[in-house]
Amino acid sequence: MTEHHTRLAHAFVTMVNERDADAVDDLLVEDYIDHNVLIAPGREGNRAFWKEFFAAFPDVTAAAEDVIASGDRVVGRYSYEGTHLGPFMGIEPTGRRISMHTIDIWRVEEGRFAEHWDEINLYQLLQQLGVLPETGAETETGAGTETGTETEAGAGIRAEATAA
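Predicted structure:
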């Protein structure tokens, strides 16, 4: 059974790489539950999301970094890359390249995904699209930084550690 669940998770990658929103017919039960607030309920809500996503990022590619299946669950860690060439979530096309990462957990029922939870690096995605400000470059150690300069707190901690 877990081998079938693993194949489903890889079929998800194929759907993304082929930009085939209609593949949800084979992947999802009709009353699919998605706990992602950006996606409307059911298989049709998921199809609509992917159509918008593929129009916004027409060259998107995905890769499965890890896939683990146990019982009626399958977990995948995915990476995506693409170019923002169409409207997405109210954001006009920027022409910028994006890199996105997700961790997806699905519950499988009747050989298809029935329920979904995910974590997305949405903050970084919005930074890449220019909607949110970029965070500053970190110092060599990466500790105690704020927009590329050492914060007073970081300097104080470093001074205390040096004195000890």
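Summary: The chain is about 35% helix and 35% strand.
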